[in-house]
Design goal:
The chain is an alpha/beta fold and about 230 residues long. The chain is built from eight helices and 13 strands. It folds into two domains: about 120 residues, 3-Layer(aba) Sandwich (Rossmann fold), CATH 3.40.50; about 100 residues, Orthogonal Bundle (Arc Repressor Mutant, subunit A). The protein is about 40% helix and about 20% strand. α6 packs across α7. The N and C termini lie far apart (about 45 Å).
Length: about 230
Amino acid sequence: MSTSILLVEDDRPIAENVVLALAREGIDCRHVTLAADGLALLRANSYDLAILDVGLPDGNGFELCRSVRGFSDIPIIFLTARSDEIDRVVGLEIGADDYVLKPFSPRELAARVKTILRRMQPVRVSLSAPPAPTAGTGGIEVDEERAIISFKAQTLDLSRTEYLMLKALAARPEKVFSRSELMDASGLAEASLERSVDTHIKSLRAKLAVLAPDADPIRTHRGLGYSLARDAR
């Protein structure tokens, strides 16, 4: 099955270069210029990834991303000329997987797309012995077969990046993961800001706190990274 991507970008020269760069990598890219058209296509079709411009004639990529996250966990990359860190943090907080500043190299963008798609590929599992949920780290239980994580016996509502990040932490309790290790485990592109890891950890902590306000299983190691406690505090 071929890879299919949706590009929502109102600058046609930029869009044409992106479509061409992706085509050279064997990736089919559908291009539209309006947020409304992009939302309709994402609701009606199954794309492998979406690339959204932040500034669009009928809205913005942030609003479009929020709408998409209501029904899909498709990987999303933002394109924007806005360089303020706060904009990048907001984009990541609402569920984006990467953030590319204009001007950019279409070849670099294609490489980032391939990296995210490669890390999304499912792990081969033996059908004769389906994996049982991995239990017990600070009340966290990972069900790899259904790709869900529970905390205190309640299912967490996680984005794809959050799921992969928490899964990595749960697989090796007490291990201190550097930000770059967590970026790699969760499929964030190498060129993403390490600050994005802090943003996703903040979001994870908030979701864990909703289910158990007195528990804080994710530990911060200043200057090093994060680990998951073996037992919830």
